[in-house]
Design goal:
By secondary structure, this protein is α/β, with parallel strands linked by helices. It is built from six helices and seven strands. α1 packs parallel to α2.
């Protein structure tokens, strides 16, 4: 039975896709892992339909969870329309459902304008992988398919989200990061007016 949703530290996580446009050097999925500290097996037999995902979520007791997090073994923004649909369905049919938290970890948003407005009123927090303070550093760590263009797309997405989502967080993983690099990342996020979160590297 594939893992569509899983629990971790009082939150309910939703695993909608295994697709990702990056190959981050620290990502467990590239080191032969099926899962992580969050769930044992996050590789999907198939991408669940929006109805399959909704049925799975409605079988949960939402009074147990502080938030709903769209984060699994892939880039959830590949399924933006389905996230929007799921949040709307849950809000209309589940008055006790917690606020949605769209969280990529540790992946970058799929480039494309116009996604921010879709999140307004539906997503309380969005987490975007920064992973570096320069395009070169970002690409060396994240290895996006789009190459250097992904850097500008990621920053544009963060700026757009800031207009529509109450809390925008950008993350870096502390693996091999010097204090100077972390300082540069902090300055960059301050200039953008968003929050920097430094994540601890989880070894194999």
């Amino acid at each position: 039975m594939m893992t569509i949703s899983y629990e971790y530290e009082g939150a309910l996580y939703v695993n909608l896709t295994n697709r990702c446009d990056c190959a981050c050097v620290f990502c467990l999925r590239h080191n032969g892992h099926k899962g992580s500290i969050y769930a044992d097996d996050l590789w999907l037999e198939h991408e669940p339909t929006r109805q399959e995902a909704l049925d799975n979520l409605l079988a949960r007791d939402f009074s147990q969870y502080r938030e709903l997090v769209f984060c699994g073994f892939g880039e959830p923004m590949y399924r933006t329309d389905d996230i929007v649909w799921l949040v709307d369905e849950l809000k209309s049919g589940c008055p006790t459902c917690p606020g949605a938290h769209q969280h990529q970890r540790p992946r970058q948003p799929v480039p494309g304008p116009g996604r921010g407005p879709l999140l307004q009123g539906r997503v309380d927090t969005i987490s975007i992988s920064l992973n570096g303070s320069t395009p070169e550093e970002y690409c060396a760590v994240t290895k996006p398919r789009q190459g250097m263009q992904a850097w500008d797309a990621m920053l544009d997405f963060a700026r757009e989200c800031k207009e529509y989502v109450p809390h925008v967080v950008m993350t870096i993983v502390d693996k091999d990061k010097t204090p100077e690099e972390i300082t540069r990342c902090r300055r960059l996020t301050e200039d953008l007016g968003v929050t920097l979160r430094i994540r601890a590297y989880i070894p194999d």
